[in-house]
């Protein structure tokens, strides 16, 4: 990921009104569940992390992403 893209995902609170006009990008949605899912997959393998994968999918769906 480029530093510009990373910076745009990390910049929170700086422009709440501006952020509402732009649609949320999938890379920036649900950072808590994404981090837990990714760590589990790296450490234990995808087949052992189904519950975290599903939790991340549910979070993404709740934000309006079609997964």
UniProtKB/TrEMBL annotation:
Species in which this protein is naturally found: Athene cunicularia (Burrowing owl)
Region annotation Disordered: where it falls in the sequence: 1-21
Keywords: Acetylation, Chaperone, Copper, Cytoplasm, Disulfide bond, Metal-binding, Mitochondrion
InterPro entries registered for this protein in UniProt: Cys_alpha_HP_mot_SF, Cyt_c_oxidase_Cu-chaperone
Free-text function comment from the UniProt entry: Copper metallochaperone essential for the assembly of the mitochondrial respiratory chain complex IV (CIV), also known as cytochrome c oxidase. Binds two copper ions and delivers them to the metallochaperone SCO1 which transports the copper ions to the Cu(A) site on the cytochrome c oxidase subunit II (MT-CO2/COX2).
Quaternary structure note: Interacts with COA1. Interacts with the chaperone CHCHD4; this is important for correct folding and the formation of disulfide bonds that stabilize the structure.
Keyword presence, Glycoprotein: no
Cell compartments where the protein resides: Cytoplasm; Mitochondrion intermembrane space
The keyword Transmembrane appears for this protein: no
Main location: cytoplasm
Protein's UniProt name: Cytochrome c oxidase copper chaperone
Binding site for Cu cation: 27-28
GO molecular function: copper chaperone activity; copper ion binding
One record GO biological process: mitochondrial respiratory chain complex IV assembly
GO CC annotation: mitochondrial intermembrane space
Top-rank taxon, per record: Eukaryota
Similarity annotation: Belongs to the COX17 family.
């Amino acid at each position: 990921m480029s530093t510009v893209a990373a910076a745009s995902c990390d910049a929170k609170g700086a422009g709440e009104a501006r952020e509402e006009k732009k649609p949320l990008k999938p890379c920036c949605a649900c950072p808590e569940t994404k981090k837990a899912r990714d760590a589990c997959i790296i450490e234990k393998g995808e087949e052992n992390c189904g519950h975290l994968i599903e939790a991340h999918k549910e979070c993404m769906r709740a934000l309006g992403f079609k997964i």
